[in-house]
Amino acid sequence: MTATKAYAAQSASSGLSPFTLDRRDLRPDDVAIEIDYCGVCHTDIHFAENDWGFSVYPVVPGHEIIGRVTAVGDKVSQYKAGDRVGVGCMVDSCRHCSACESGLEQYCFEGMTGTYNGEDRRDGSITYGGYSDKVVVSERFVLRIPDKLDPAAAAPLLCAGITTYSPLRHYGVKAGDKVGVLGMGGLGHMGVKFAKALGAEVTIFTRSEAKVAEARQQGADHVIISSDEKQMEAATEQFDFLLDTIPVQHDLNPYLNCLRFDGKHIVVGQIDTIEPPVHTGSLIMKRRVLAGSIIGGIPETQEVLDFCAEHDISCDVEMINMQDINTAYERMKKGDVKYRFVIDMQSLKAEA
C-alpha cells in the first residue's frame, strides 16, 4: 500500500479538505500514475454534496486525470515508466458482456466501476479519484496522451470532451450538417469545436445576449437567443442535430421543433426528469429522435484524444491550486468559469 495525499469530502456539507488514503499495491495488470493535473467536473460537486443520494464518504472526486507512469505490473504491455497517460470516468467493468466486448464499457451490463465512489470488483473497496497525487489503474482503462496535446488542457477531454464527441460520432454528424449546441459551458464549447472539426455548420443556442460575441469566438457560425420567440420561430425545422448540454431542467419542446424530419436531439447534460413533458406529436409527426448519451468507451476515448491532437482542439481551462477547490465549486455553481477548472497537482504535492 502507498500513502497518498488527497482532498476529500467527509459529508454532504463538509466541503473538501486534506485527506490521506492508501493506494493498492500493483496487481499484474496495473499501472501506477503520478498525477500532474485533474479536471473539475460538475459531477464532482454532485458526489461531494450527495445530490444524487448515493455518495459513500469519504469522497475523493476527480475523473479527468493526466499524469506520468511511475511503475507497471508484470503483465502490462502497453505502458512503461515515464509515459504520459490519462484516466477518465471509469476504471473497470465486467469486461465480458457484449457492451464491454464492443469497447462500450460505459454501458457494461453489470455497471461500469467509476473512477471514484465506485466499488472495486476484486476487493470491494471504494474507489478514490484524481484529487490526489497518485492513482493505480488497470492497464485496460488507461489512455495514452498524444505528445501534441497540452496536458493540462487535455484533462477535461476525458469527460467533457468524450461526452460531446461520442454522440456526434455515433449519430454520424458530417460535413454540411446543421448542428445546434444548447448551452455554452464546459460541455457546450467542446461540442462546438468537435462539430466544426467534423465539417458541420454550427449554431449555439443561449438565453443570454451577452454570450453572442463569446459564442462566435468559440467558432459558432450562428447564435440563437433561445428566449427570443421570433428567433426560435425562424429556426423551425432547420437543424439535423441538437446536442443538448444544458445541465438543469428545461423545456425541450421548442428545441424539438427546430429539428428537420429525422432530426436527432441528444441529451448529455441533464440527469433529471423532463419538465414540462415532451409532446410526442413533435416526435411522431417528423420521425424525430430524442435520445441520451454518456461518455464513451475506452477505444472511443482514445480516439477523441487522437482526434484533438490531429485537429488542434483543446478545452479552454482555468488553472487552480488544490487548496482552492471549495471556492472553485462555488464559482461553478454560479457559472463563473470559462470553461473548465483544472487542478495543478503540484500544489497538493507541495502542501506541508
Q: Topology, please?
A:
Layout: E1 2-9, E2 16-23, E3 30-40, H1 42-48, E4 65-72, E5 84-87, E6 90-92, H2 98-101, E7 113-114, E8 134-138, E9 143-144, H3 151-154, H4 160-170, E10 178-182, H5 186-197, E11 201-206, H6 212-217, E12 222-225, H7 229-234, E13 239-244, H8 253-256, E14 259-267, H9 281-284, E15 289-292, H10 298-311, E16 317-321, H11 325-333, E17 340-344, H12 346-349
Parallel strand pairs: 10-11, 10-13, 11-12, 13-14, 14-15, 16-17
Antiparallel strand pairs: 1-2, 3-4, 3-8, 3-17, 4-5, 5-9, 6-7
Helix pairs in contact: 4-5
Summed up, the domain count is: 2
Give, in order, the helices and strands.
EEEHEEEHEEEHHEHEHEHEHEHEHEHEH
CA-CA gap between termini: 21 Å
Q: What would the principal axes of the Cα set say about the shape?
A: globular
Q: Please identify, by name, the CATH architecture of the largest domain.
A: Alpha-Beta Complex
- The proportion of residues in beta strands is 25-35%
CATH class of the largest domain: Alpha Beta
Number of beta strands: 17
**What is the alpha-carbon Rg in Å?**
20 Å
The CATH topology of the largest domain turns out to be Quinone Oxidoreductase, Chain A, domain 1
DSSP helix fraction: 10-25%
Largest sheet: 7 strands, mixed
Instruction: Point out poorly predicted stretches.
Output: none
Number of helices: 12
Which structural category do the helix and sheet elements fall into?
alpha/beta
